[in-house]
Amino acid sequence: MPEWKSELERLRVYPNAEIQQMLRLSFDGLHLDQQRIFLDIACSFIGVNKDLAVSVLDSCNSFADASIRVLVDKSLITICSTSRSLQMHDLIQAMAREIVREESDSPGNRSRLWIPTDVYDVLRMNKVTQSVEVLVLVVEKSCKQVHIDCKSFARMNNLRILKICDLELENSGQMSELNLPKDSKVNFHGRVDSLSNELRLLYWHKYPSKFLPSSFYPENIVAIDLSYSSIQNLWRTPKCFRRLKLMKLKHCLRLTSTPNFTEMRNLEELILEGCRNLVKVDPSIGMLRRLVLLNMKNCTRLRAFPSKVEMDSLQILNLSGCLKGNKLLKVFSTVNTLVELHVDQTAITTLPCLFYTLTNLQVLSLGRYQRFESRWTSVFWHAYMQRKFQQPQSFTLPQLANLHFLRRLNVSNCNISEVSSEIGRLSCLEALNLRGNDFTCLPASLSQLSQLQVIILNDCRKLEWLPELPPSIISFHASCCTSLQKLGNLLVTQNSFRRNVLLMGCPELVKDLNPLMSMLSHQVPFPIHLSIISMNKRIPQWFTKQSDGNVIKVELPQHWCYNKFRGYATYVVFIPHKSYSKAKNGQPGFSVNNYDKACLDDGYMRPFHLISEVMLMNIGSYVTWFHYSASKPGWMEAKNFVTFSFRGFSGIQVECGARIICEEDIQCSSSMQSFLTPTQDGSVFHLSQEWSSAPSIDNGSPNCTRHLVWSSNYEVRILVIFGI
């Protein structure tokens, strides 16, 4: 094994010469400018938005747009259809980087640096030269601590692109500022006294100084990102950056004021999210006529905004978490170009009247802090645990009739007692979040929303019943709706089995199981995947093959015929030991192999996150996982016997059972007349009739939580029901 690992590492650094030589032909056929742009993209713009990359490359006296079209035509790069980001095949990227490596044996004499070890060595030993034009350092969680002398940057006078990105910080974008990683893997020593004035792009997470160098005046710079840094102010005197399009200063906790924007007339994106000590915004910000995105989320100390706002191009405005959001929002009431408006977690109780005329608005988010903290993973002991917050002031649902193009609406935790029937006029609405409100029912007009795909009703504890819902729904969440009794047509429509339905902590739904079970049995076709999680000790006798380990061999029926094969069922009993740790297991999985070891099926235990939580809370107890999977084409090759293997367990004793299911086993199930039925005392679930020996869902204890987990991994189909 060590020699294979060594060979793989060698191929990663020095790719196969024959393959590289063939790919090199396409590169050699490019013009000099096109070659230069190709190498820049390979080293620093993979995954970057195409428009931003073009702006940066154009500022280097290149015809980037035309060159990128040529690169696409030659299949050297691709452009993602959704994110518009630049992409490149690994082999082509390796070829490009090999071309750069051939420039010199000494990394400091190459035009582009991107390999972390090369960057560390060059900066630590101060071996840089004026040859370096691009320097990219991606700091990953696995990186070791590195110490770098800031004086190294003074020698790179021709540096055009500088990217020092901390992936751990970027990946924690949804975390609270208090939970952001405190320590950096890269420690910079000394002051940053000089940076190249040729810079077009400056990304430096955790920039170590309070100010940018006084001599730093990159007139052609296009993008600045100094997120998570110690910066207090960018510069002491106004600068003229006519090409600047992006300024990103996320979570700069020492930043108290913004720079003067007078000579940044082409700025399109300004991101100040998480600058908690920002108290002053320069008046010139209101004159940014080309600004498209303004993000001031969680600028908690910001109290005022310039009264004169002439942002003629502003489309996305985020004031979420601003304590004076109501006051700030009024300033923008005359901006009629908004497409997205986010004012979550503010004290706003109603929108200024002028916002009702924003006919182009597509996203409106007015959610507040959650009033209850729910632990749905504790359903085996408590359906949820509540932690009450101060009762919020009631929010008046805005008049929505004029918002014809609204696609997403979030009014979660707004203490709304009634939802207007006007909501049915939002013909373009795709996602609706009404979580944590106080209404008892929803208007019948919801059925008119033919584009609606997602509804979130979690923690609507007074909601008693659902109206008829449109067949377009593909995701429905209503966990902890403690009064919910009727599901309407949620599981009855033609597309019901293509839905992702989560109903956890809904005790009223399981008080009378017969209507629910009847609905499931008569309207839902035989599932493609079915998973049931329970706490049970015994593997049912229905599983004809059983094993005390994590591998089980099952002989195929004597007259095996794929055309009569309908699927297979497995049953796994987990017994966690005291040494069990969720972190050690990752994502457990299973595989099914033919007699010749060819793989017939392979996958993950999708609900294992729930199983793991249950085991952590019940060390020494039994937790079981029943799984059914329908037939797949791969089983056409099955012969003699198959082997079921369960992998990825540490600190867990595993017992398992398996059964091959053929047509004769389920011939009574074609109509699914009683697919799921409760036991006579109503305390537990069993699978019905031909599945009557399948796992019971709970241990029969009078106080045990009744629950059903039905999970289908095809087209993200899942039904989860938990009761108290």
From TrEMBL:
Instruction: Name the Gene3D superfamilies for this protein.
Output: Ribonuclease Inhibitor
Q: Which domain of life is it from?
A: Eukaryota
SUPFAM superfamilies under this entry?
Answer: L domain-like, Winged helix' DNA-binding domain
Q: Where is the Disease resistance R13L4/SHOC-2-like LRR domain?
A: 390-490
Sorted keywords for this record are: Leucine-rich repeat, Repeat
Residue ranges of every copy of the C-JID domain listed in the record: 536-665
Q: Does the keyword Zinc belong to this entry?
A: no
Protein name per the record: TIR domain-containing protein
According to its UniProt entry, this protein's organism is: Mikania micrantha
